[in-house]
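Subject: for your reference before the review

Hello V.,

The reviewers asked for a structural picture of the protein, and I figured it would be easier to keep everything in one thread rather than splitting it across files. Below is the amino acid sequence we used in the manuscript, unchanged from the supplementary table.
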Amino acid sequence: MKHLLIASLLTLASAAAVAQTQVEVKDAWVRATVQQQKTTGAFMQLNAKQDARLVEVRAPIASTVEIHQMSMENNIMRMRAVAGIDLPAGKSVELKPGGYHIMLINLKQQIKDGDLVPVTLVVEGKDKKRQTIELQVPARPLNSAAADAIKH
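And here is what came back from the structure prediction:
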């Protein structure tokens, strides 16, 4: 009975945490790496209930984590770090190869297909209050079905 009560309380606490989450994260994945590779990307879809902004990303597997944008400039694809990404209410914002994405730089170890990579998103609302979203993001090879779906 005691275990059932504890399980029920944990379920309620988890449901309350989800209810307070202002940003839904879907289809998150990290690109698996080969040995000695020092950078990789993380990708996902973000959907905010209210206008918000992704302002920071952390991952203990990398020394540096940056939010990046790729764009065409004078027929050349350029990648640059950005301070954040606006998340308009009710609109899905896709972080994908060739667009906005998260760069994990100076990796501390190889990321293998199937690994779960801890990633923390920091989202700021219009009221300047910050929310952290803790994720366990699966690693997949670039040529996986998830990667193919994101490219199209």
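For the response letter, the relevant points are probably these. The beta strands are 23-31, 39-48, 52-58, 62-73, 76-81, 85-87, 92-95, 101-107, 116-125, 130-140. The CA atoms of residues 68 and 82 lie 6 Å apart.

Happy to draft the paragraph if you're swamped.

O.
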